[in-house]
Amino acid sequence: MEGITNHQEFVSMPRIGDQAPEFKAVTTQGEINFPSDYEGKWVILFSHPADFTPVCTSEFMTFASMQDQFKQANCELVGLSVDGLYSHIAWLRTIKEKIEYKGMKNVEVTFPLIEDIKMDVARKYGMIQPNEDTTKAVRAVFFVDPKGVIRTIIYYPLSLGRNFDELYRVLVALKTADEFGIATPADWRPGDDVIVPPAGSCGTAKDRMESGSDDMKCYDWFFCTKKLDKEKVLDKVLKK
Question: Per the residue annotation, which of 56, 202, 218, 224 is the catalytic one?
Answer without folding.
Answer: 56
